[in-house]
Write a structure and sequence with these properties.
Pfam families: UPF0181. The chain has 58 residues and is mostly helical. Helix content is 76%, strand content 0%.
Length: 58
């Protein structure tokens, strides 16, 4: 697995797929939708890891 790609639960995978389908229904290409959702997932994961790191530092 790629270094910066978080592992998703089945439910999270389903939510990501639904979000991709929503974006495609709005006229976005599949590639753009996948890239956007992947970036959202990575950003959320990075924020969560930063929050945990901040809490551990306290």
């Amino acid at each position: 697995m790629l270094n910066n790609t978080p592992t998703l639960t089945h439910e999270q995978q389903q939510q990501a797929a639904e979000r991709i389908h929503e974006l495609m229904a709005q006229g976005m290409s599949s590639g753009q939708a996948i890239m956007m959702v992947a970036n959202e997932i990575r950003e959320a994961d990075a924020k969560q890891k930063a929050q945990v790191t901040d809490e551990d530092a306290d």
